[in-house]
Structure formats: C-alpha cells, structure tokens
Write a structure and sequence with these properties.
The complex is a heterodimer of chains A (about 400) and B (about 300). Chain A has about 400 residues and is α/β, with parallel strands linked by helices. Chain A has 15 helices and 15 strands. In chain A, the strands form three sheets. In chain A, strands 1, 2, 3, 4, 7, 13, 14 and 15 form an eight-stranded mixed β-sheet that branches. In chain A, strands 10-9-11-8-12 form a five-stranded mixed β-sheet. In chain A, helix 8 crosses helix 9, helix 9 packs parallel to helix 15 and helix 10 packs across helix 11. Chain A is globular, with a radius of gyration of 22 Å. The two termini of chain A are about 35 Å apart. The chains are: A alpha/beta (about 400), B mainly alpha (about 300). Chains A and B meet through helix 3, strand 10, helix 10 and helix 15 of A and helix 4 and helix 14 of B.
Chain lengths: ~400, ~300
C-alpha cells in the first residue's frame, strides 16, 4: 500500500506542478464545475478510424454533427501504438484528448499526463455500461480519469469443418497438443497473438487449469505464475504455425493455410463469415481477455470546454453504434445496440456483448501489481515484451 | 596593355578567390554532404549510442536520466543471440543463393545475349522493382500457402511426398511453405536477386574479349580461363552485389512478419523493443548489432575490391 500512496503523491505532485506551470492557472486538483463556452476547436489523439468524419465511407461520420452543434472544430492526430500515445501526451500542451487503451491508461495517469474528469459534467454518464463506469484502467481511488469509449474481445475462432458437431469450448485447443475432431493433430494448425499482452491469455488459461498457482488477475503475475505462463507459451510455440498481429493476414491464413483454431477478434470472424468461410467464434469456459479504450483528457488541455463537450458527445448512442459497426467492437453505451442501422439488430451480440462478464480487460502489468503490492512483486510489462519475443524465437 | 576601368566582375573575383585558396573550393564542394553525413547521419547514430546507456523506469516505462550498462547486458541473452544468429545466417544463405542464381544469368547477358535480348533481360530484371515491395511479398504469401499454387502444382506432378519430406525437415520446415524457413528464404532471394544480378553484369561487361582469347592462345583450359580471368575479374561485382543482398536481408523486418513462422529477426526485435515495449535503450543497443556486422562485412568486401565495382 505504501508504494501506491507514493505513486499517488507523485501523481498529485506532477499534476500540481503542471497546473502551476501552465499559464491558464488551474487550481491544483480542483475539478471544473461547469462547461463554459467552447474554445472553437478540440484536438484528439486517437487510433486510426476512431474519429471518422465520413472521409473513408460517407455513412460513417460522427464528427460533422458535433462541429455544427458546438462550434468546436475537431482535429485528429492518429497514433499507431499505445506507446506513441503515451509519448504524444507526455508533457504536451497541444492535445486535449486521447483514446487510450487499457495497456497505456494507467501509465498516462501515473505519469501525470491526463487529468481527473468531473463526471457530473458528463450528462450521459449514467448511460455508460455500469460495468465500465468504475473500471480500474481509468479509475484510481474513486477518481475518474476518462470516459469509456469502446471495447472488444479476444475470442476463440475456429473452423467449423474441422470441429464438426463438437465446437471447442476451452482454450486448451490452442495451448495443449490434441487430436482435433477431424482426426488430425492441432500442431501447425493453430495461431496465437504476437503481442506480449498475450502472456495474460496463457495466465488466464492457467488460472482455470492450475488453480494451485493462485492466479487471480492475469495482468498481475508474480515470478512463479509468470514462469508457468511462459512455459505454457513455450509448449504452445511447438504447435503454432504463425503468430498473428495483422487482422487481414489472419483472415488470409484462416482461408488459405487451413488454420483450425486461434485467438482472434470478432472483426476477423465477422469478415470471414460474411465471405462464406466455415469459421465461427466462442468465448471459452475459461473466459477471455479484451481491450477497452477510454477517452482521457490531457493535464494541459488547451481547450477544456470543447474537450468536455466531446466526451459528452462521444457517448451518444448513434455514435457509439456506428463506431461498433465500423470496428466490430462493443459499445460503451448499451443503448447503442438498439436500432442502429449500420450495426444491425444483432450487431452487438455478434461482436460479443453477451459475454461481457467473462472478459478480463487489458491493463498495463506493473511491478507493484497495479498498486496492490510492493514494487518488485509483479513482473512489469517491459519484461513481458522481452520474454515473449524470446518465446516466439523458440527460447 | 589596357586595364579594364570597371575592374574584375564579381564572377571573376569569386573565381580568383577560389583559385587562390584551394581548400575553400574543397570545403564548399563538400559542405552539404559533410553536414548531411556528420550532422544528420552521425548525429542520429550518436543519439542512438547515448540512448542505449539510459535507464528504463520499470513502473512508468519512462526513460530515466541515470546512466547504466543494463541494456548492453540484456543484449547478449540467449534469446537475443539467437535472433542475431538467425538473421545473419539467413542473410548469408540468401547472399550465396543469389550469387549462384545471378551469375549464370549475368554471364549470359554480358557475353552472349544480342543487344535486343540483353535490353529485354535487363528490363525483366528491373521490372519487379517498379511494383510495390509489399504487394510482391503478399502475393508470395498466397503462392506459397497450403492452398496455394505451388502446392497445387506439386500435387499434380505427384511430388507431394517430396514437398512433405522437405517440410518435415526440422528447423527449416513447417506446416506449409509459407510458414517455413524455406519459404522465407525463397521470398528473400526473390526480392533481393536483382541487386545481385546488376553489379555482376556490370563487372562481367568490363572483361575484355581479348583477355579471354589471350588466355586460350596460351593454352589454358576453358575452366582455367574462367577461374583465373572471368571469375577473378567478376569478384568485385559479386562482392558489391553481396553487400546489397546481405545488408538488405539483415535489415528487413517486413518479410519475417508475413512469411515464415514468426521467429523474430533483428529488425523485428528492434521494432518490438522500441514500439511495443517503449524500451528505447535496449532498442538502441540492439541497433548497433547490424552496424557492427556490416562494418565487419564491408571491411572484408573491400579486400575483394567491391568498391571498385559499385
């Protein structure tokens, strides 16, 4: 606990320091109590495709209306990785908002790059899925550091011709060597995600199959649990033909390489099914990992009023539904699932919304187990990267 | 003798100044490349070197101000050494295969092909370079796939067994050509082959026919003539081509993500350490491995006269 207080202290100090140095002169940790007049523009750092104004496909436009309603011109800076987002936001006074994923949000908070948001000023806050409202990747000690935007799951995709009448219900088909229902081994016919965060998927499987390890949170692993997960992944390496990171390459592998089962996103299985491929998906009994993105506000946001207006706007059901349709994700606002033309009546269910409770969302693994233990108790993320690269290299 | 009342023009004055001070001429000529090389190129290398000594804060992933040798120590773990060996091994194999394939073609182009045929062949070698590298790699992924055209063809020829045997070979095999080291090797050779053909062709063009005739007149066996004249004079071209194929394979990080079994190469490892992990110090330290490998390689290539054929 002590280290957590220290971090909070550092965070508060950092916030204070930035507040003091900024010419605007906000007062320490005091939250704004009202949204004033718009400053005329708002600058958002986001994933590609998150801020669409109809340029890519005229049907997908959730910016034009906002600009007309509020007079805040939206400027979008696209970032390619979570680390790029952290780098852009650190110490910058150019950007107002960032759509941070769970593997960077806590880092942004710890680094003092984002500020607490007064959710009383977000009228639609109550429409947000209650399970996301206090999610630990954007809430620290009851303080909210952003507004949920979108989330997606890592499901188990499989070939229905291979599995026939006995669809898989466990991640074991991608972790243990086994004979699949079509009579052949799974060796060389499965895939795994090539990001280090996939170590959490192995830990999640172990939490069900080896309860002795005592894994409670797959993102907070002590050395013993972490080694067990790595060993499972080394065993998996023998079975994996290719690791995937590009959705379209994986779609091609399902079609042309005879991939029988793999962790995947609903996006890929939706595209494959639309093309008539014999592919289906399931959330296995062990549960699944997922990612959830949050719109967070910079500590030095130059346009705070427009930023608050955007956060409110980002929760409207039309935008949420359109975004879910565009990305194959699950909206942060459940009402968005009803009556959205682009998403269709079963859109949310297709993207996995009914499995929400079985999902463990990405968090950055930190060496103090996300503030619950002393520093050094858990294996930090940068070690995950080094070790997972070694596992893929066969070590 | 009359003197021009207006005195020398500006151009004349400049010319005279430059003539009187040769060092100024050299300085002006080289200013731009020197600024580029020392400032932009050397500067970024220096920044990399400095970065590699910074410490990484394990909590926030921030790059600290304190200096440490940690990154250099981490560089030589088993896993990282395996990455280096894999990359250097692949680069060497690709280079050797490229020489074997490129030499006969370059030889034919330089010695036997008629003007028109030669132009056509040069064009054929160059045409692939006009289309996008990515498109070509992706199309190879389809060609080599389990349900791809090569497999289909091999089955029709009744050679399925042979292919199966190749793919079952440990280390180089895999579930299908596109997911094996063999497949990766084929694509590397395909992509970089033109860079081997052209310098060999250029060096063979420079072998005068009279030398070959003289060798024959002196009673040398054609094989001896080839070894002592043709090959000897082609070596700089081969060395130059090998610099291209070797360094290009060494630095490539796209092909290993699309073709093969996802085993990391040096470029991929650097990309992950920097991009995914935000571990800039380790990525910076890793960047010096290909630089060191190329330094050794270039020193060796220089001894074979590679720079005379560039």
């Amino acid at each position: 606990m002590r280290s957590r207080k220290l971090i909070l202290l550092i965070t508060a100090f950092a916030l204070l320091a930035t507040a003091c140095t900024s010419s605007g002169g906000e007062e320490g940790e005091d939250l704004p109590t009202e949204v004033g007049e718009g400053e005329g523009n708002v600058v958002i750092v986001s994933w590609a495709g998150y801020i669409e104004r109809g340029d890519t496909d005229p049907a997908f436009d959730w910016v034009t209306q906002f600009e007309a309603d509020t007079g805040c011109a939206v400027e979008n800076k696209v970032a390619g990785t979570s680390d790029e987002m952290v780098a852009l936001m650190t110490g910058s006074d150019e950007y107002d908002l960032v759509t941070a994923s769970g593997d960077s949000s806590l880092r942004l908070i710890a680094g003092g790059s984002v500020q607490e948001v007064n959710i009383d000023l977000i009228e639609s806050w109550d429409t947000v899925d209650p399970r996301l409202q206090d999610a630990e990747w954007h809430t620290v000690d009851g303080a909210h550091y952003g507004v949920p935007y979108s989330s997606g799951f890592n499901v188990l995709g499989y070939n229905t011709e291979v599995f026939g009448d006995t669809p898989p219900d466990s991640w074991s088909v991608v972790f243990e060597e086994t004979t699949l229902p079509d009579g052949e081994s799974n060796a060389g016919r499965i895939q795994a995600y090539d990001g280090p965060i996939y170590i959490a998927d192995a830990a999640l499987y172990l939490s069900a199959t080896q309860p002795d390890l005592g894994i409670e949170d797959p993102y907070q692993l002590n050395t013993e649990q972490y080694e067990a997960a790595l060993n499972l992944l080394r065993q998996q390496r023998e079975l994996v033909g290719r690791y995937w990171h590009d959705a379209f390459i994986q779609i091609d592998d399902f079609t042309n390489e005879g991939v029988a089962a793999s962790s995947t996103w609903p996006f890929q299985t939706n595209v494959l099914q639309a093309g008539g491929a014999p592919i289906d998906k399931v959330v296995p009994v062990e549960g699944a990992t997922g990612w959830a993105d949050t719109t967070m506000m910079s500590s030095n946001a130059p346009n705070p009023n427009c930023a608050y207006m955007w956060m409110e706007w980002s929760l409207n059901p039309k935008l949420q539904g359109d975004l879910a349709a565009w990305f194959g994700t699950v909206p942060a606002v459940p009402a968005a699932c009803e009556g959205n033309e682009l998403l269709g009546p079963d859109g949310c269910a297709n993207n996995g919304s009914e499995s929400f409770d079985e999902i463990l969302f990405w968090k950055t693994p930190t060496d103090d187990c996300n503030g619950t233990a002393e520093a050094g108790s858990c294996v930090p993320y940068h070690e995950w990267v080094t070790d997972y690269l070694a596992v893929i290299g066969g070590r | 003798m009359t003197t021009d009342s207006k005195g020398p023009t500006l151009t004349h004055r400049i010319a005279r100044t430059l003539h009187q001070r040769p060092w100024l001429k050299v300085l002006l000529l080289l200013a731009l490349p020197v600024i580029w090389l020392v400032g932009v190129y050397g500067g970024s290398l220096g920044a990399l070197l400095v970065q590699s000594f910074y410490a990484l804060d394990s909590f926030s992933g921030a790059i600290g101000d304190s200096l440490t040798l940690d990154s250099w120590r981490q560089l030589f773990t088993d896993a990282n050494v395996a990455v280096m060996m894999r990359t250097v091994g692949m680069a060497a194999a690709v280079t050797v295969a490229s020489v074997i394939i490129a030499f006969p073609l370059a030889y034919y182009m330089a010695r036997y092909a008629h003007k028109r045929v030669k132009a056509l062949l040069v064009l054929a070698v160059l045409v692939p370079l006009w289309s996008s590298y990515l498109v070509r790699v992706y199309s190879w992924k389809l060609i080599l796939a389990a349900d791809g055209i090569i497999n289909w063809f091999v089955e029709r020829l009744g050679l399925g067994r042979a292919l199966q045997f190749l793919l079952e070979t440990p280390f180089i095999g895999g579930p299908s050509l596109s997911i094996s080291l063999v497949g990766q090797f084929l694509v590397f050779v395909y992509i970089w082959l033109p860079y081997m053909i052209l310098p060999i062709h250029a060096s063979l063009e420079r072998v005068p026919g009279s030398l070959l005739e003289a060798s024959a007149d002196l009673g040398a066996h054609p094989a001896v003539t080839f070894r002592k004249v043709t090959w000897a004079m082609a070596i700089p071209g081969v060395a130059a081509g090998s610099i291209f194929t070797f360094s290009l394979t060494l630095g490539d990080y796209i092909i290993p993500t699309i073709i093969g079994d996802s085993s990391p190469f040096i470029g991929l490892a650097i990309y992950s350490y920097q991009g995914v992990a935000g571990n800039l110090p380790l990525a910076a330290a890793f960047s010096f491995i290909p630089i060191a490998v190329m330094a050794v390689y270039l020193t060796a290539a220089r001894r074979f006269g590679a720079f005379e054929a560039l």
